[in-house]
Amino acid sequence: MTSSPGYDDRYAEPDQLRDQLRRLLRYRVTIATGIVLGLLGGLLLVLLTAGSYSSTSEVLVRSRTDPFSTFGVAADNQVSMGTERQIALSATVAARAARTLGRPSKAAPLLANLRVTNPPDTQVLRFAYTAGTAKGAARVTNAFAEAYLADRQDRTKAMVKRMTSGLEQQIDVLAKRIEAKSDDDPATSAAGLRDQISVLQKRVSDIRSYDTTGGDIVRRAEPPARPSGPGPAWLIGLGLIGGLLLGVVLAWLRSALEPRARSVGEVQAALGARVLGIVPGADADDADPLVVGRAGGSRAEAYRTLAFLLRKTEGRTAAGTLLVVAPKEDGNAEAAAVNLAAAFAESGDDVLLVDATAGAPGLPARLPLLADACAPVGAPEGSAVVDAGTAGRFALLPDSRGTTGDNRPAASAVTRALPYAESGRPVLVITRPLLEHADALAVAQRVDGVLVVGGLNRSRRDDLKRVRELIDCSGGHIVGAVLDSGARRRLLRRAVDGGWGRRIGQRDPDTTPSTPADDLVGEVPAPVQDDTLSVSR
């Protein structure tokens, strides 16, 4: 068997991106939920910010010049804007503004929505207030600006009063000294004191005439025409984008934490063998496991295709022993074994199906047996004949352990069937689930190959890895896997040389396939020695 050519490295990264995208798209409901949550968040922001209006007022802070400043100090350095900003945000200014607004008890809540900033390299304080109405925002902003100027003016007047009071005390002291002068004191001494009094009186006059206004309102607050912040369209758009990101993250987490095999690639990576086909699931009310030769449809065609893939590539009949087993309890394994036997019989092979499930009443009770027909020559004693309709007939060796209480191992039935296989005729063996009973391991080392039957979106990756390890340890050989897609899935793809070929079967027009074609593309499977089921490995 020729090996597949290597792939160009430049296609590896796009393939990985497509595979990651397909994995995320399996969780469409999760992504849609994230988008809905983001949309609801955007609408909530619209409701919360729809009634928020912000209005701005600007105040020019006046510098204090002589007599308050010292000589040689520039006017720009006489005002600390950081200090003035803190004063504008003080409780004293807030209380004054609250009284102006007629809400003296609401000073603290008013400060919560006030912002005062100082543009760089300026002596301007910018007041901005956010309220539920445009007029309310402008009114409160102007009230704070006026309250700040009134507070600064009061502080300046208080300073004027303190300075003039000190100067007047000095004048009183000098006047008392003049009155206390004796007649014999020089006149020049009294004249000097009078000159000092004149200077101090002039200074008091200058201070009292000083303009104590704290500053000017260079921009009064006006009611804004529209709400502050992004508009509804922006908020809804941001909500949708955030919801999409949330949905993608949640879908990625689900994909990373998902224990089940959701694609063909995941099954192949866990099992180390190719997936030979995906069989459409049977209807819930269909209890008949045999469809090949007795019923049409895509399910029967899928089993015929699977039987074709198990044959030799040269077109000769399939010969040897094949174990059909499921990791855990699953009726699909019995259906796969029965229909494969019918498909081989349809091609003219004398097939023997060995039932080693130890079930009561077992497969004979669910298959159409021909009471008067004779088993093929060489078939083990006790074999029955199953009528597969147009596909022909095949032999069935039932498991008597379920009815007689026989404790013999399942491998004994395979031993009885080995002479039949040595004559060049195919033998199929069905046992109980491999991870629940040891029968399958004992049989796996006596047959030519093992066909693992699982369920897409139902089989766990850890279970498939355990199946691989147990069969390898027992000396068995996995020829491939067949997956049941469930009752609503109606697609089948087959593997040829490690890839997927054309679609087999027809789509049910009444149902929507829940396994997209994208799910049938996965990682490159582990190489399998041959596509055939042969007597010698």
From TrEMBL:
Region described as Disordered: 501-537
Residues annotated as transmembrane: 29-53, 233-253
Keyword Hydrolase included in the entry's annotation: no
Record's keyword terms, sorted: Membrane, Transmembrane, Transmembrane helix
Source species, domain of life: Bacteria
Presence of keyword Transmembrane helix: yes
Protein known as: Lipopolysaccharide biosynthesis protein
Protein source organism: Streptomyces spinoverrucosus
